[in-house]
Amino acid sequence: MKTSLRLLNAIGRSLPRSRSTSFIGLGRMGHEMAYNLFSKQFAQANESQFVVCDAIPESTQSFCSNFIKQYPGANISIANTPEEATLASQTIITMLPSSPQVLSVYNDGIIPTLRKLPAIQAHNTLCIDSTTLDVDVARSVAKYVTEAGSQMVDAPVSGGVTGAKAATLAFLVGGTITAFEKAQPLLALMGQRIIHCGPSSAGLGAKICNNLILGVQQIVVGEAMLLGTKLGLDPAVLSSVISSSTGNCWSISVNNPVPHALPEKSPPCEREYEGGFATALMLKDMGLASNVAALAGCPVPLGQTAEALYARMIEERPDLARKDFSSVYRFLEKAMEEGNTVKPGVVLP
Ligand code: NAD
């Protein structure tokens, strides 16, 4: 175990980069994605080498320990920095919280390292960023990676932690056809649908539009469930009716916010809203949508209202920031119990 978890102090000289894959960002999503990717790569070729990197050392330690327990003999190592992770592997996957972390990992770690590599090694390197972040930041990072001679795709995901665990994610990919074709076989080990959306940042554009819908949808599902319960309906009956009617959507039929409303499923509400998509991340995505909409001159009044509501929720209930965003139901419920009308600062065109 000790040798497998050794620090990579001689990376680049001792390891063949072509057989190695680095994964940076082992959070709720990254942990599951890296696990699927590495276990399937190991099954395909057990001489593959895996490198993990995270700002929290315990995350990489526990990932490696679990992986080695499941796959004895696997060659998995910890990189202390994105620079080490880049020196170690020809494929670098990043799954970070948002723009500031991507800027720091790429601009201070990956890109300067790519610039120092021999041209052939830089040429063979592929960066895949699955973070949901600002379109402009993604474009600029991809430009610098490309100028360093390497290839890059933005490949944000849809499907949540459940999809990451089950390897059923949808990857929305932006980049050249060549980069897409290089990334596709790897992404297929972590997801089910790999969609080329267009040039660099197109995947991100698609992801932001999807989450604009999702952020609004989860609030209105919370409102409807609360109203229905107040009108005396059983949450399970109401959910079943809506799921088979025109109001059906992922937020009611999969991510239902009311415990026991989906007897055959286990959404985050069944675990005190743990383990899903954090409210803080949803607030971030609503912000990404309003920023890019403002730049494009496109009105998003419901998106802005939802953004204001999530912001107020986190301000008043900081304990819900890390919980699944379906906990907006709890926020609305508390407002109802206190006799408050939630006034999120509606912005209408
Ligand atoms: P997370 O906060 O759980 O994980 C992020 C990880 O990045 C953490 O382990 C953190 O320590 C690490 N990190 C942060 N800064 C770093 C740095 N400088 N160097 C190395 N590691 C660093 O977030 P998550 O839920 O896994 O989400 C990741 C991305 O995926 C976000 O952009 C999110 O919007 C998107 N996403 C999440 C979900 C979901 O359901 N959680 C669904 C779809 C998309």
TrEMBL record:
Highest rank taxon of the organism: Eukaryota
Cross-referenced Pfam families: NAD_binding_11 (PF14833), NAD_binding_2 (PF03446)
One GO location term (cellular component): mitochondrion
EC numbers for this chain: 1.1.1.31
GO biological process: L-valine catabolic process
Keyword entries, A-Z: Branched-chain amino acid catabolism, NAD, Oxidoreductase
PROSITE patterns listed in its UniProt record: 3_HYDROXYISOBUT_DH
Reaction(s) catalysed (UniProt annotation): 3-hydroxy-2-methylpropanoate + NAD(+) = 2-methyl-3-oxopropanoate + NADH + H(+)
Pathway: Amino-acid degradation; L-valine degradation
UniProt keyword Transmembrane, yes or no: no
Keyword Oxidoreductase: yes
UniProt family annotation: Belongs to the HIBADH-related family. 3-hydroxyisobutyrate dehydrogenase subfamily.
Protein name stated in the entry: 3-hydroxyisobutyrate dehydrogenase
Organism of origin: Lentinula aciculospora
